Every structure is written in C-alpha cells, then in structure tokens.
Amino acid sequence: MDSETQKDTELEPPSIIDRYYTRWYRADMKGQPCEDHCILQHSNRICVVTLAETHPVLQNGRTIKTINYQISNGCSRLNNKVSGKSKRGGQFLTDFAPLCRITCTDETKYTIYSCIRGRLLEVNENILERPNLLLEKPSTEGYIAVILPKFEESKSVTENLLSRKEFESIVSKRDQQPQAS
C-alpha cells in the first residue's frame, strides 16, 4: 500500500522542452482562425518554430500530403546556408515571413510563418521525407525551423507573442463560441 501511495505522489519529471524552453504562441496567424503557431525559446536566444497543438493540421485526423519550403520562384528556405560563429549567410526573416507551405490530403493548404524577426539557422528537412513527424511529434522531431533573433532584439522578440496562460485563455474563449454552420 505504501508503494502505491509513493507512486501516486511522485511527479513525472518535466520533458526536455518544458525544462529548457519557454513556450510562446501566436494565435490566429494573419487573421486565419485557429492557425496557431508555437515558438520554443531557449535561454541561449535560439527559437524553434513549431505548430501549436490547436493548429488545424494537427486536428481531425488530417494527413499531410506535401510540405514545401519553396516560398516563391526566387526564394527557397532549403537554400539557406549559415556559417561561422555569427551565423553569416542565414536568410533574415521578419515576423510574417513564410517558412513553408503544408498541403493536406484533403487539399487544404496552410502557410507557416516565422512569427519572430531573426536569422534562419535551419529548416527541418526530415519532415519532407517523413511528414508524419509533424503530426506525431510537433514540438520535437517535427519542428518547422530554427531562428536566431538579433542579440539586441532577443528580449523584445516575444512582445507580440502570447504566454501559455494567455494562449490557453484565448483557446478556451474560442471553444466557447458557437460554431458557424
């Protein structure tokens, strides 16, 4: 009996993400309802762009047909090459710079944005070959991109983002609204 009580009182240790990253959110990106993005900010300034749990791609059992980092004829995020300590050569992104486009098997298309200003360090090429990573592990192996904000902007980069508590409040209000038919 004592061992059962002990097991109940033991808390599961926090995940790597919860331990080392701060979660920030952007709700209804560019006015698109429920198109929520999550930014995982590490203490070393590096930010990982992922889909929020509430993003439509992760809802209703959708499956991904394609992920495309080709933003326009002259711009592919796959061509991003960084080098050196200061990460020279990385594409500079604004808050609303598109990172990739996701097409689901039902032909619904979603554009994923950077949400923050900074230098693009890398895009996740693994999700091109295995798009299910985005569905199964969106915060870890299924991330979209890694961005490094300018040192001067590293404190202010989250000003336009929501904390987890603020985001959960918005989601709960959204869930309480009657659905349009």
TrEMBL record:
Protein name (Swiss-Prot/TrEMBL): Protein Abitram
Organism: Oryzias latipes (Japanese rice fish)
Keywords, sorted A to Z: Cell projection, Nucleus
Keyword Transcription regulation among UniProt keywords: no
GO molecular function, one term: actin filament binding
Subcellular location: Cell projection, Dendrite; Cell projection, Growth cone; Cell projection, Lamellipodium; Nucleus speckle
One record GO biological process: dendrite morphogenesis
Lineage, highest ranks first: Eukaryota, Metazoa, Chordata, Craniata, Vertebrata
Keyword Nucleus: yes
GO CC annotation: dendrite; filopodium tip; growth cone; lamellipodium; nuclear speck; nucleus
Protein family: Belongs to the ABITRAM family.
Pfam families reported for this sequence: GCV_H
Gene3D superfamilies: 2.40.50.100
